[in-house]
Amino acid sequence: MSDSSNKNDSGQVNKSMMDKKRKYALLIEAHSQDLYKYALWLCKDKAMAEDVMQEAFLRAWKSLDSLREAKAAKGWLFTIFRREHARQFERKQFDYKDVEQMDTIADDSHLGYDDSPEAFALRNALSKLHKDYREPLEMQVLGGFSCDEIAAILDISSSAVMTRLFRARKKMRQSLGHESMPQLELVGE
Amino acid sequence: MNSVEFKRLALSDPYSENEDFIRKSQKCAESKQLLRDIKNMDHELSKSLDVSVPESLLAKIQLNQLLDDEEIGRDSRKTIWRYSTAACLAIALFVGGFLFNNFFTSNHPIADDYQALLAGVVEHMDEVLVTPVWNPQRANQSANMHLANYDGAMKLKFLKNLQFSRLCPMGEYRGLHAGLDTPHGHVTFAYIKGDKVEDIIDAVYKGYTTRVKPLKNGNLVIVSKTKSGLDQADKQLDEALYWDL
Predict the structure, then answer these.
(1) Are residues A42 and A131 in the same domain?
(2) What pLDDT, in 10s, does the model give residues B2-55?
(3) Closest chain B C-alpha to A18 CA, distance in angstroms
(4) Is position A152 within any domain?
(5) How many cross-chain Cβ pairs, A to B, lie less than 8 Å apart?
(6) Are A54 and B15 in contact (CB < 8 Å)?
(7) Same domain flag for A95 and A12
(8) Same structural domain for residues A59 and A145?
(9) With a CB-CB cutoff of 8 Å, which residues 95-114 of chain B face chain A?
(10) B225-239 pLDDT, tens per residue?
(11) Mapping DSSP to helix (H, G, I), strand (E, B) and coil, where does residue B43 land?
(12) What's the CA dihedral at B21, B25, B29, B32 to 10 degrees?
């Protein structure tokens, strides 16, 4: 093989590496904010959120070649993140059951959230939702995903996503007093 | 789209681009208000969860990528090195095997070709300069060691005039090459394993008096400038060389 073809090959390798690094930098720039927001809410712990984020981004870097469309980048990244979160969650065995069983969430202002009573009430209402309803709502509100994208990430049908979103918002509104709670009627009255 | 359907869609996907949905949200004041409330709740919820990404986290993410990059570089260099080493080793084994089979084994049939054997020894003797070992003790130790390596059963009794010994390639053969200092001059002898000649063959070759005789697993070749030197060496070796049965 001649010197010039060797140079061309190494030039192409360098160029593709440059492209990959650029793509990765853009990915971080475009989605790190949403992902961190989602991560912190999911982990309820800054250190763990950062750990999972780092690991998820590293995995994303390693498999960046499999990402073909810019449009799919966010969903792809969230999927990697969710898997990583599940892995770390299993490893760390945080006692989240207790958190879920509580009527209200503990003071979470130390995480950097808005500490106004309205904001707290919203977070409280969200955390009280069942996981099945909460998850699609978090993805829509925090990630800005469409129903089809959520369906793909959660691996359920679009209609199931819509049903869950409907129930989630309805319960949220009831919890916040925007909608009346269904009343039990006494028989005979 | 009626109000119930509108509410259902508004709660499940307030950002729907369904035409009926959009039209209803524009025409019906109640629906418009409901959609505004829902979107407002989403917005407020998102705002309540707003946090800024720590700069150190972004730096850590970039750093992880750089470190991974370097690790991949190191791994690929290691892989190249491993493949190169394996390739070199394979070539060395191949060449070693080839050389061993072609130059260091001596199982060629020579019954009808003793001349090749003789020529190999004589030419080697002429080509290679040897340094005599004047300490017979050391010379005998060395000869016995070489002989044990070459043919484990063969032994050599102490020869006070043994000058040197070495395992050498000699033409197509390989064997023990040694020298004796006799009153009639220097005598070279070689023990080479392989097919044995049937009888003792005396010949003059390139001005040397030579003898090829069968010995245990091969042949003994004796080369001398004089007939008397050859006879003396032959007599000595006849008594000195023996083997375990």
Answers:
(1) no
(2) 888 899 999 999 988 889 999 998 988 999 999 999 999 999 999 999 888 888
(3) 12
(4) yes
(5) 99
(6) no
(7) yes
(8) no
(9) none
(10) 999 999 999 999 999
(11) helix
(12) 120
Provide the CA B56 distance to its chain's centre, in angstroms: 50
Please return the burial class of A84, using the count of CB atoms within 10 Å of its CB with bins 0-12, 13-18 and 19+.
Answer: buried
Are both A96 and A146 inside the same structural domain?
A: no
Suggest the residue from A169, A173, A174, A178 to mutate for an interface test with chain B (most B CBs closer than 10 A).
Answer: A169
Q: Which residues of A touch B61 (CB under 8 A)?
A: 28, 32, 53-54, 57-58
Domain boundaries, chain B: 3-48, 55-94, 98-243
The pTM for the full model equals 0.53
Residue A106 lies in a domain: no
Neighbours of A83 (CB within 10 A): 13
**Is the CB of A166 less than 8 angstroms away from the CB of B12?**
yes
Parent domain of A33? 1-101
**Which stretch of A109-118, A133-142, B117-126 has the lowest confidence by average pLDDT?**
A109-118
* Domain CATH number, residue A85: 1.10.1740.10
Q: Which of A162, A163, A167, A176 to mutate to test the interface with B (most CBs of B within 10 A)?
A: A162
Predicted complex ipTM exceeds 0.85: no
CATH number of the structural domain B98-243: 3.30.200.100
Instruction: Please answer yes or no on whether B42 and A140 come within 8 Å at the CB atom.
Output: yes
> Which ranges of B28-107 does DSSP label H, i.e. alpha helix?
29-48, 55-103
CB pair distance less than 8 Å for B51 and A36: yes
Render pLDDT for B204-214 as a digit per residue (tens, 0 to 9). Answer: 888 889 999 99
Beta-carbon separation of B64 and A118 below 8 A: no
For residues A131 and A95, membership in a common domain is answered with no
What is the chain B residue with the closest CA to A138?
B46
C-beta neighbour count of A132 within 10 angstroms: 14
Q: In this predicted structure, what is the pLDDT of residue B43?
A: 92
* Whether residues A70 and A162 fall in one domain: no
- What CATH code is carried by the domain that includes residue A177? 1.10.10.10
Q: Which of A57, A74, A101 is the last residue of a domain?
A: A101
Q: Does A145 touch chain B (CB under 8 A)?
A: no
Q: How far is CA B16 from the centre of its chain?
A: 69
Choose among B198, B191, B184, B180: nearest CA to B219: B191
Q: Is the CB of A111 inside 8 Å of chain B's CB atoms? A: yes
- The backbone torsions φ and ψ at residue B241, rounded to the nearest 5 degrees and listed phi first, read -85, 125
Total domains, chain A? 2
Contact state of B57 with A62 under an 8 Å Cβ cutoff: no
Q: Would the CB atoms of B57 and A54 count as touching at under 8 Å?
A: yes
